[in-house]
Amino acid sequence: MTVRSDPTSQGGRLVELGGLVIRYGAIAAVQGVDLAIDAGEAVAIVGPNGAGKTSLLSAIAGVARPSAGSIRIAGKPLAGIALSDVVREGVALVPEGRNIFGSLTVMENLRLGTTPRRDASVPADIDRVFADFPILGERRDQPAGQLSGGEQQMLAIARAMLSRPRLLMLDEPSLGLAPNIVDKVYDILRQIRGQGVSLLLVEQNAARAFALADRACVMSRGVFTLTGTPAEIERHEAFDAAYFGVAMAKAGTA
Ligand SMILES: Nc1ncnc2c1ncn2[C@@H]1O[C@H](COP(=O)(O)OP(=O)(O)OP(=O)(O)O)[C@@H](O)[C@H]1O
């Protein structure tokens, strides 16, 4: 995957969440989360169903509006910014289920990823996608719904990368895929990270995400119950309980 990240992206703090709260009516899905991600860093979030992981990604993508707290992208507050401008700020989300438009062709799906761009190098970037993913090139005129699950995941990642993100977020990228396909997806994510793009991954498959991530967070009931390097988290005595969502008496911070 050689679509380049935005050349204006620079080192330093890329994402900063402060006291983030997300409510849906009476449900507090996220209950005060702090998180900082540096440029080029990969962070994994794991945790049981209903922990608030998807809500967190949705808020950073500008889809879910926070009830309290702040989100900054490269120092710029996200509050009040239109959804399309969040993408222009360099944030891309590959949602759970991939959000591929099955009746549109592969090419039409890819073009959707380029809508926020105003530069002239879109055709060259699409050519690069086809060089990196020959199957997408071979099937460019076919409905995307005819692709396999793994191919659709590749298409979703390629489409997100065509917006030239500084931060690529993925919600359950390995869900429903065979292990050899998951290998390919993670190879691609490693390449993307190698280009300096920050990654924020939500994964059921903690082992996969931890192998890639610099840092990890275990989320449960709307808060981070453990944070640290993947190695620190894996050997933490509370990891299994936190990961599987069992009530914890003394889960501290690693
Ligand atoms: N649009 C919504 N309206 C109402 N409640 C919601 C909405 N989205 C999520 N929730 C609730 O918020 C809580 C957190 O959900 P969220 O999907 O963020 O968690 P998750 O950790 O991603 O879980 P999963 O792995 O099951 O997707 C859950 O109780 C969920 O039912």
From TrEMBL:
Show the InterPro entries listed in the entry: AAA+_ATPase, ABC_transporter-like_ATP-bd, ABC_transporter-like_CS, BCAA_Transport_ATP-bd_LivF, P-loop_NTPase
Domain of life, per UniProt, equals Bacteria
Q: Which UniProt keywords apply?
A: Amino-acid transport, ATP-binding, Nucleotide-binding, Transport
Q: Does the keyword Transport apply?
A: yes
User: GO molecular function, one example?
Assistant: ATP binding
Domain named ABC transporter: residues: 15-246
Q: Does the keyword Nucleotidyltransferase apply?
A: no
Q: Which CDD domains match?
A: ABC_TM1139_LivF_branched
> What protein family does this chain belong to?
Belongs to the ABC transporter superfamily.
Q: Which PANTHER family does this chain map to?
A: HIGH-AFFINITY BRANCHED-CHAIN AMINO ACID TRANSPORT ATP-BINDING PROTEIN LIVF (PTHR43820:SF4)
Name this protein carries in UniProt: ABC transporter ATP-binding protein
